[in-house]
Amino acid sequence: MSIEISGLSKAFGKKHVLKDLDVTIDTGQCYCLLGKNGVGKSTFLNCILDLIQPDAGTISLFDKTYMLDPIAVKQNLGALCEDNPLIEEFTGLEYLNFVSRLYRLAPEEAAQRIASLTNYFFTDRESLHKNIAGYSTGMKKKVGIAAAILHKPQALILDEPFTGLDPIAAQLLVNLIRSYRNANRVILISSHDLNYVEKVATHIGVLNDGQLMYNGSVQEFTMNGANLIDQALFQLLLPHHNAETNMDWMLT
Ligand SMILES: Nc1ncnc2c1ncn2[C@@H]1O[C@H](COP(=O)(O)OP(=O)(O)OP(=O)(O)O)[C@@H](O)[C@H]1O
């Protein structure tokens, strides 16, 4: 297995956000983690990224663990975090060059990859010479995504990658994720954008009350396409919800 998580638990004070989770994600899969606000999706991803220390459990990536070989694990990971921290004083190009040096890419190789990624995502190339502080949310996200991919990681972990992207950039990201998936990498995404999840997911996890209410293939989740992902998710999380009776006051 490429990503193997076993017995993962995390509490913040008395709130048990993740309870003894087991998840395996194999190469060629794009696993999309879904669930209501505040259910623990980012916490789950941040544990895998070693940004949050779990209370219990083991995480192994390509048979290596943080405990035994943290550098090897991190070399194989590309990450876009929910708050997308960048260095705002840098221009987009300076930031990507900085990241390429962190990963010790040869300068020529780095220049080639940066040119290809920025050509792909940025029609407005001028903006890449301006400070990130002045970028829109979507532009920052595109820089964050490019930085996550630059070192060609085996596993890509993306927290809310579609949020804030315009439809063109989002579709470009869909195409990129599909190519990445087909190149036998492994992708883990947390997202509320189910239209895009529908286009990239091979597997779905639905987190609720600290546990996975569903953990399996997208085909099984949608009953072989009989349901859309949003319908299947709604039925799973709110099977008895009746919006009309709850909101009558609004219509009179
Ligand atoms: N550092 C922290 N300290 C205390 N509580 C935290 C901390 N980080 C997260 N939480 C709590 O853990 C729970 C899960 O948060 P998390 O951000 O993982 O949810 P999420 O599913 O990603 O939410 P959303 O869909 O709204 O982004 C929330 O109740 C949140 O308030």
UniProtKB/TrEMBL annotation:
Keyword Transcription regulation recorded: no
Protein's UniProt keywords contain Transport: yes
Database matches in InterPro entries: AAA+_ATPase, ABC_transporter-like_ATP-bd, ABC_Transporter_VariousFunc, P-loop_NTPase
Any GO molecular function: ATP binding
Domain ABC transporter: 3-234
Gene3D superfamilies membership: P-loop containing nucleotide triphosphate hydrolases
Name the UniProt record assigns to this protein: ABC transporter ATP-binding protein
